[in-house]
Amino acid sequence: MTIGYACLTRGVMDLNYKTCRRQNATRENLTELIEHNLAVLEAMIDYNHQMNIRLFRMSSDIIPFGSDFNVNDLNWSALFKERFDQIGKKIQQYDMRVSMHPGQYTVLNSPNPDVVSRAIDDLTYHTQFIDNFNVGSQHKIILHIGGVYGDKEAAVIRFIDVYKMLDDAVKARLIIENDDRLYTIEDVLYISENTGAPVVYDNLHHYINGKELDGSDAYWISKAKGTWKDSDGNPKVHYSQQQLGAREGAHSQTVRLQEFLGYYESIAPLGIDIMLEVKDKNLSAVKCILATSKEATIKDLEKEWSRYKYAVLERSPSHYQKIRELLKDKASYPVVPFYRMIEEAMDTPLSSKVVINSLDHVWGYVKGQDVQKDKKAFEKYKKEVDVSVESLPKAKRFLKRMALKQQQVYLLESYYFDL
To answer: Which range of residues forms the domain containing residue 370?
Structure first.
């Protein structure tokens, strides 16, 4: 079972995609943006390999206006062929599986022909993008069914009819997913029977839209698994948790490990891949991989601690000390209590006194030779935090600039500036 994450990589320097507004989408600007974005994607692929992450959903926005040929008429496949070939070789060499997930406006069952035409263009773009890596059909494009438009039965028929007209290259990559409002897993399985499209099961969507249906997660995953052919690769699911205290359906900030492990154990016999949909992205992926690995050691937790420690100190010095004590036993592998304490610390509300202590701690690493000038600015930010902890982001941006100036890589590669 492979565990992965979606689109963005957190806590790693200089991994941000760029885009532009329509009016600024000149050929020159688009060329520069695509070159930058493909370099970021390659760095993400390398990072995932280093962290043993073999499942990764790529952003749909790497090619700005990729499906709008009136705005972006570049032959970007040919223009960046060498880069695509290079990334594709790494994907295969690393035994990584990539995917994409078009957004909510890519709707095949709309009664509006223009909307359907744009959706087909978007799926063609996504297919072309993945095809450029010269990878097999196990690298997928995920799609929701769409709307109901006052007549769900007719909407289902429209989806099936449009699907059958899609190019074979698109159909080879397309998989369909249950959503949290309109189409249950039972609906999607019916559509799969009539199209041949593999089904990906989303547990949180099912909890919101489908809990009246009989059957456990494992039951419905087993049903979905039966829709996959060998050429589709290993069946996969989407896994997310409800953010506590937020609107129904909001993804959690991080994966609560104990809850995940219960889910993992219940579906382990099915041997499926798990795509996490969570706000802290790769951080949760690493957490879940280490918690389910039979090969990880205390050294892996120590590496994780070096990234988390200042973010923990910022919220809970007591948890900071407890984790340090926990990791002293080098013969142990206390992965569950390690992450439980990190989760508890990150759930602790910020307080000015504790935050200022952590700011002083980090300042000790980043202060440069021009101490008086920088110290004056730092003291100003501290006073603002003392008045209101909501000023903390400004203080941390200052410290990050200082860390960059002093090339404090240890700090910059931590999660302190990202959590």
So the answer is: 352-412
d(CA 159, CA 142): 15
d(CA 308, CA 299): 14
One domain, residues 342 and 224: no
Report field, pTM of the whole predicted structure over 0.90: yes
* 314: amino acid identity, one letter: E
Helical (H) or strand (E) element with 148: none
Is 390 found in the same domain as 306?
A: no
| Closest C-alpha to 87, from 42, 36, 35, 132 | 42
> Do 80 and 182 lie in a common domain?
yes
Please work out, in degrees rounded to the nearest 5, the angle formed at the alpha carbon of residue 9 by the alpha carbons of 8 and 11. 140
pLDDT at 308 over 80: yes
Backbone angles phi, psi at 4, to 5 degrees: -140, -170
The total number of structural domains that make up the chain: 3
* Residue pair 346/254 in contact by the 8 Å Cβ criterion: yes
On whether residue 25 sits in a domain, the answer given is yes
What is the CB neighbour count within 10 angstroms for residue 280? Answer: 23
Reading the block at residue 69, the tokens are 């040929």
What's the chain's average pLDDT?
A: 95
Pairing of strands 236-239, 273-276: parallel
Whether residue 142 is found in the same domain as residue 177: yes
* Nearest CA-CA partner of 47 in 213, 365, 281, 219: 281
Task: List, for residues 222-246, the tens digit of each pLDDT value.
Answer: 999 999 999 999 999 999 999 999 9
Q: And the tokens for 269?
A: 């016999």
Task: Report if residue 419 sits inside a domain.
Answer: no
Cα(248)–Cα(242) distance, rounded to whole angstroms?
7
